[in-house]
Amino acid sequence: MISHHHGKHSIRFSNPPIIQAWSSVAGKKEGEGPLKKHFDKVILDSFFNQKSWEQAESKMQELALQILLNKSNLDIADVGLVLSGDLLNQCISSSASLSNKGIPHVGLYGACSTMAESLMLGAMIVNGGYFNHVAAITSSHFASSERQFRFPLDYGGQRPPTSQWTVTGSGGIMLCNHGSGPKIVSSTVGTVVDRGITDANNMGAAMAPAAFSTICTHLSDFNMCIDDFDYIVTGDLGELGVKALIELARQKNIDLERKILDCGLEIFDRTTQDVHCGGSGCGCSALVLCSSLLEKINAGKLKRILFCGTGALLSPTSVQQGLSIPGICHAVAIEGAT
Amino acid sequence: MISHHHGKHSIRFSNPPIIQAWSSVAGKKEGEGPLKKHFDKVILDSFFNQKSWEQAESKMQELALQILLNKSNLDIADVGLVLSGDLLNQCISSSASLSNKGIPHVGLYGACSTMAESLMLGAMIVNGGYFNHVAAITSSHFASSERQFRFPLDYGGQRPPTSQWTVTGSGGIMLCNHGSGPKIVSSTVGTVVDRGITDANNMGAAMAPAAFSTICTHLSDFNMCIDDFDYIVTGDLGELGVKALIELARQKNIDLERKILDCGLEIFDRTTQDVHCGGSGCGCSALVLCSSLLEKINAGKLKRILFCGTGALLSPTSVQQGLSIPGICHAVAIEGAT
């Protein structure tokens, strides 16, 4: 039997899965932001030649997988399975993107934590020896999300100052059981944390307690401190969520501010791009990880990060029913090749 | 290194995870059906003392987990993680049921294949040595599903003859790395198969090709034939889906009819319960597996079944856009204790 170090909620991988390749397909606005030079592809048309935004999002996942295969020099038949999910009802853009491709598919729902969730499960599957190559993919699309979660764009609803801008784009990662590259060394499975936030336009605040819980669990399970990481990367807390997280940490005498890098604050230039509190959506942390972050880790500029995917587990129905918003956060520790 | 990889899409577990306990919480109609004596609990009130059907469904998952813990003689802190998902938008009933319980949660979306999907991943996680106890849970609710996928019940829409009745209920399974009981010996990850069915009231036909594909892959990956199983159990194809599956098999000279047991045909008495083509929903295959089927396996009346969870990966949006319905089927082989 292999033996993995166990905290209560954490796993250390005995044979750390390698990130063999990563891909990023970004929307127009994302392609005008600070990370523009780092994306594999920027799609200028929000419909991406499809009839609907949902299909456009699906097409972005298809392209992210294709780029991933090209970069890994793999055929689709070489991939053991694709772990993927998205924000759309019934995760339709993920399943549609794999339709009739003959590739095994495991569908996930973790809201904006999906990139971390799929990496965590993918690492378990590769490290467990079940499949040699596993792809982790996710996406979001501003227009399909706004219509589903808030208002149709045509309605012209005003966005409150606490809101975040759903990222249009898809990111993918190919995990492999051998080779060189950044590796996933450990992971912490998140718990559902609900502190009573009911405002669907303030998701950062809803997710911050879950992020703090998972970060603390990871550090405690491995007897580490925040200085063991170059960055604690949070999914998409945005300005208010990051403030809430830093305050939660301060109450426990942890100075998290100097270590936090929030993907929601990285993806857009908030001074010129009018996104209020920052970016959000499954595509947000996926695009940031699958562009500049993995590049820096691969180039040796970052040695170790804790990638904390955060998700707000609301639905339009639960919001209409006045229910509070549960949050979740899954963490994976990624190290550079040594 | 352990080596599990068998066929291209299949895994044989080197240390087959044990099904330590199972639980079933059924709705009123299900509790009046042929399996009534086998359920742990029948809930007569469709609201289950909650304010909405969505919350009632969530409460059913909570109860299924509680019964599972009682039967396994485990505390919630002993459980490594809960794998769960459901049909509701953003899988809200699954995440809400675990809110603030402090238990690690991995959210899945596999439509009505969720019970099989969660068992498959759970078996990988337990067999991989990551956690000793993993719970796999799912649910569906007739009223929350009808409102979301078709019409509000108050509208009184007529159900076409091809339709199936979404099961109200929740089923759960506790997987464990030691002990005695039925065990999961192997699994096949499904691929997304779309043969162009666009009628959301004929989901059996949409899922049958995916079921046939996964059954063939499992048999071929392990060099087995259908006679190696007491039953090939399909999730919820219903009358038309089963007919379509049998016909697909006949074209390949396989006489599947004598081996098929469809959960959609087992859960209700179709002569008296007015459910048209049978049952459906994540709760359908979960309730059938977590009652009479596991009882029979545990009692030695069945030696080996192939449990094939089938899912129709449609969304109301994709249906409104006229898109066809992709299907998926994940299979787990379950054997009695030997």
Could you characterize the architecture of this molecule?
Two copies of one chain form a homodimer. The two termini of chain A are 26 Å apart. In chain A, helix 6 packs across helix 7. Chain A is α/β, with parallel strands linked by helices. Helix content of chain A is 33%, strand content 22%. In chain A, the strands form three sheets. A six-stranded mixed β-sheet of chain A has the order 1-9-14-13-10-11, with helices on both faces. At the A-B interface, helix 3, strand 5, helix 4 and helix 10 of A face helix 3, strand 5, helix 4 and helix 10 of B.
Task: Walk me through the topology.
The structure is a homodimer of 338-residue chains.
Chain A: E1 10-12, E2 18-27, H1 28-31, E3 41-43, H2 53-72, E4 81-86, H3 92-97, E5 105-107, H4 114-127, E6 133-140, H5 142-149, E7 165-166, E8 169-176, E9 183-188, H6 203-221, E10 231-234, H7 238-251, E11 260-262, H8 263-266, E12 279-280, H9 282-298, E13 304-312, H10 316-320, E14 327-335
Parallel strand pairs in A: 2-3, 4-5, 4-6, 7-12, 10-11, 10-13
Antiparallel strand pairs in A: 1-9, 2-8, 6-8, 9-14, 13-14
Relevant terms:
homodimer; 338 residues; alpha/beta; 6-stranded mixed sheet; 10 helices; 14 strands; globular; disordered N terminus
